[in-house]
Amino acid sequence: LDFAVGDRASVFAGAGVDYVDASASIFGTEINGDGQGWSYSYGGAYRLSENLVGEVQVRHLEADLSTDFGDVDLASDQITLGFRLAL
Q: In this predicted structure, what is the pLDDT of residue 72?
């Protein structure tokens, strides 16, 4: 969902189902896992110029992964600050 806030700004929110393929190195041991999860995100964007948009996004992900060592529950939070080019 996107909602315009004036002429140059917008806020957004979304959710989805994810496939996760992850790896980690713990004390020199490589662990690989994959599985299904879900996520949601929200944030805001601001048009800095005709072709440049600044954006901040918060994303939360949860997944159940199968590994060689058993099942692992994964939770991740991300905060992203970025720019998009409008071509």
A: 87
